[in-house]
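@channel sequence for tomorrow's demo:
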Amino acid sequence: MRAAAGLDAAENSARQILENSLVRIVGAFQRSAEGLFHLVPNATKIPRRKNVFQSLSEGSALWRSATGKGYDDLLGPSEMADLLRFFQQRHLLAHCEGVIDQDYVNRSGDPTYSIGQRLVIREESVGRAVDLVSLLMKKLEELVQ
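structure tokens (generated this afternoon):
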């Protein structure tokens, strides 16, 4: 791509692919967790808002109320911290064009950015997000079996 379109276009395309990947990972988790939650006995009686599983705290609270276990019972502290950061980054990409705001700083606990900076998504972060979402989904599946 660099040869055909130039360095800037190639770098911009790579950035967009990584950012879109993170957004899609969280979206896939939302849909998968929603589908899996329907398998929980009496799940239809538990009120929930649309896209609730895009919020780790709200989604975890729903699972805890339905099964007795929340996400923090299924993942370790560092895994939860990373997952929270990725979900907050997805929120920035989807709603703030990737620009760091005070909410991101407060909610993510990410000390690497200042307000007004543009988020940078790295390939290894996308891989880690896939691994964590996959692990959490596996653990949630075990709860409903």
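heads up for whoever presents: The radius of gyration is 17 Å.
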